[in-house]
Design brief:
15 helices; seven-stranded parallel beta sheet; about 475 residues; alpha/beta; three-stranded antiparallel beta sheet; about 45% helix
Length: about 475
């Protein structure tokens, strides 16, 4: 049996109608309105609405302060006559732009999901069509001191003085051929890049290059403002160029975007850890309500010591200390949330996180994913494989949800702990490329990863100095 070739099962694949009578009439009227001189339109309006229908006055002006109704009647015909050609121009541009947008993949997906056609057109298509339409309006209102024109992958053009007949006669800036994924925010970041170069006193090609590169980031990523590049990311992109058109899937750029857009200065921290669970549950007379109240008291003590100062934080769980954890949000404290099952070896994660660690998607953005791993350099390969797999799974979930990640390492008592044990463990984790892969140039800002290592009764300062630790290590806390 041959498969059906009908497109009824895939309405999103049907072409957008373009040759209907309604479209022809609308196009003809817009062309006619744009072609007729303003003074002819004025005479026609006077003949029909003033002399024949006697709805509006033929001439004269009534001040607003004297009579609102008379003022309104006196300005309607002049306003219509002056704006007719521009309305026709915008109508033609709107029709053309909306037709192009209705052919985009995301519109086809919306239609396939069963969204009402009027919602697809008015909310999804018309809103995005306003971007090029608004750009055209700004173009027509440009001033002699100069203007810039976006041309997508063809780059951009700067024009000083009179607008030439051929746009290619302006100063050009290189474009970047990228896959368009999202058009929201492209104009804003384009102008930001243009201002960056202009305020630096650069000649036009440089600001245009900045603007085009910033626009390429915005349209090839998701999220509008969160997709805008940092200065380090922009410079790296300009040096390296486009390696793949879908920038959102470029691992080097994503790593650099992640590592150079962090908020807050946590270089020096004083953290009050009351994330204990196993110890409290083992106490005689333990109840969830009593232990939860205890952790709320711990939070109050931390806030009193902090007193609005930076550099203070807490470690608090959401199993016993949920109320304290939620109350800490917005307080300015650095907040770490443990994910490991207490005392587990090999590492086991809290069941509430789910098999894919999807539970972190519900966390507040200010929460830091913290996991404690008991390990030793002499552990069996199977033990290392299990530990690494769980850390990698949790780290990947943290990155997906743009949460910072804290890996706490404590050398296991299963083997001898020497002055080199801590440093060997840290190097072991960083050497595992599938988890923490150093990407980008050597002068980058480090990624959002902290490692806290504890070696009881061992002079760890000597252990750190005994091994060369490269600039891959950041936020390192040896205690």
């Amino acid at each position: 049996m041959q498969p059906s070739r009908s497109t009824d099962l895939l309405p999103a694949a049907r072409p957008i109608p373009d040759a209907s009578l309604r479209n022809r009439v609308a196009t003809s009227l817009s062309v006619l309105a744009f072609s007729i001189p303003v003074y002819v339109v004025g005479y026609m309006l006077i003949l029909v609405f003033a002399m024949t229908l006697r709805v509006f006055p033929v001439q004269g002006y009534v001040p607003l302060a004297n009579d609102f109704a008379g003022w309104l009647r006196s300005i309607i015909l002049p306003s219509v006559a002056m704006s007719a050609s521009y309305v026709a121009l915008v109508a033609r541009m709107t029709r053309t732009t909306v037709a192009d947008i209705l052919a985009q993949d995301y519109i086809r997906v919306a239609i396939a999901k069963g969204i009402a056609p009027w919602r697809v057109t008015c909310i999804h298509a018309l809103r995005n069509a306003a971007i090029p339409i608004g750009g055209a309006d700004q173009w027509h209102s440009c001033r002699p001191h100069g203007s810039a024109v976006k041309r997508g992958a063809k780059g951009a053009i700067a024009i000083e003085g009179k607008i030439p007949d051929n746009l290619d006669d302006g100063v050009t800036g290189a474009g970047f051929p990228v896959a368009v994924f999202n058009v929201l925010g492209a104009g804003d970041v384009f102008f930001s890049g243009l201002l960056k170069g202009w305020l630096d006193g650069e000649n036009w090609p440089v600001p245009l290059k900045y603007a085009n590169a910033c626009g390429a980031f915005a349209v090839s990523r998701h999220g509008c403002t969160p997709a805008y590049p940092s200065l380090e990311e922009l410079n790296f992109f300009l040096r390296r160029g486009v390696m793949r058109p879908d920038l959102r899937n470029d691992p080097e750029l994503e790593q650099l975007h992640w590592s150079t857009n962090r908020h807050g200065d946590w270089s020096e921290m004083r953290v009050f850890a009351f994330d204990h669970r196993m110890q409290l549950e083992a106490m005689t007379g333990y109840t969830l309500s009593k232990s939860g109240a205890f952790k709320e008291l711990c939070l109050q003590a931390a806030l009193r010591v902090q007193n609005g100062q930076p550099g203070y934080g807490i470690l608090c769980d959401d199993r016993i200390g949920k109320r304290a954890l939620y109350a800490a949000s917005g307080s300015g404290l650095w907040i770490g949330r443990p994910c490991e099952w207490p005392g587990s070896r090999p590492l086991t994660l809290e069941p509430a996180l789910g098999l894919d660690c999807g539970g972190v998607s519900e966390w507040a953005r200010e929460n830091v994913v913290k996991v404690l791993c008991f390990c030793h350099p002499d552990d069996e390969p199977a033990m290392w494989a299990t530990q690494m797999a769980n850390v990698r799974r949790l780290y990947a979930a943290s990155r997906r949800n743009r949460l910072e990640f804290l890996l706490e390492i404590i050398p296991s008592k299963a083997g001898t702990v020497s002055t080199d044990t801590v440093a060997l463990l840290i190097r072991r984790f960083y050497a595992f490329q599938a988890i923490f892969s150093p990407i980008g140039d050597q002068n980058r800002t480090c990624s959002r990863l902290w490692i806290s290592a504890t070696a009881p009764s061992v002079p760890t300062t000597a252990s750190v100095r005994s091994l060369p630790i490269s600039n891959e290590f950041c936020g390192l806390n040896i205690s």
